[in-house]
């Protein structure tokens, strides 16, 4: 058997076996973004699909917070007016990192600032800053 025939056989085998596996089990090849050490993963979904996850984030005053925000279903953004944070749109399936140091104790609402669904204005979470 010639080398070309062997290579062609391998290519055909990859297509015959690999293509159905790729089409039937896409989650096998799709990695959900995850938080890296020291980060908090904040997942944004439309209000109809559950909204922010987690909806409440507890942090300590004076300690750096690093949020990795994932727009899971459609494009979203992150707005935390009390800390002057307002990201540009985070496109579907991508993440954006936001860093800040909360200097005040309190409960601060955060929102999505990209119209993501008909109930977009209900999409709210809380940042709880503790002593
Ligand atoms: Cu929105």
Q: Would you list the SSEs in sequence order as H and E?
A: HEEEEEEEE
How widely separated are the two ends? 74 Å
Strand content: 25-35%
The class by helix and strand makeup works out as alpha/beta
> What is the strand tally?
8
> Strands across the major sheet, in which order?
1-3-6
Rg value: 21 Å
Average of per-residue pLDDT values = 91
Helical residue percent band: 10-25%
In CATH terms, what is the fold-level topology of the largest domain? Immunoglobulin-like
Q: What would you give as the CATH superfamily of the largest domain?
A: Cupredoxins -  blue copper proteins
Bound molecules: copper (II) ion
Question: Can you tell me the overall shape?
Answer: elongated
Indicate how many domains the architecture comprises: 2
Residue ranges: pLDDT <50 for 5 or more in a row?
Answer: none
CATH class of the largest domain: Mainly Beta
Number of helical segments? 1
Largest sheet at a glance? Answer: 3 strands, mixed
What is the level-2 CATH architecture name of the largest domain? Sandwich
Describe the structure in your own words.
This protein has 1 helix and 8 strands; from the N terminus they run αββββββββ. The protein has 131 residues and is of the alpha/beta class. The protein has 2 domains: 1-30; 40-130, Sandwich (Immunoglobulin-like), CATH 2.60.40.420. A 3-stranded mixed sheet has the order 1-3-6, with no helix packed on it. The chain has a 3-stranded mixed sheet with strand order 2-8-7, with no helix packed on it. It is elongated. It binds copper (II) ion. Residues 76, 112, 114-116, 120, 123 line the site of copper (II) ion (CU).
């Amino acid at each position: 058997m010639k080398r070309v025939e062997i290579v062609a056989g391998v290519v055909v085998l990859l297509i015959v076996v690999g293509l159905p596996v790729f089409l039937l089990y896409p989650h096998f090849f799709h990695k959900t973004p995850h938080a890296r050490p020291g980060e908090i993963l904040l997942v944004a979904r439309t209000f109809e699909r559950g909204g922010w996850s987690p909806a409440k984030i507890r942090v300590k005053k004076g300690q750096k917070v690093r949020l990795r925000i994932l727009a899971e279903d459609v494009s979203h953004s992150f707005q935390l007016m009390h800390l002057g944070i307002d990201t540009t749109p985070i496109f579907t399936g991508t993440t954006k990192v936001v860093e800040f140091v909360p200097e005040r104790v309190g409960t601060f609402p955060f929102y999505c600032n990209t119209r993501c669904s008909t109930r977009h204005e209900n999409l709210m979470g809380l940042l709880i800053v503790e002593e």
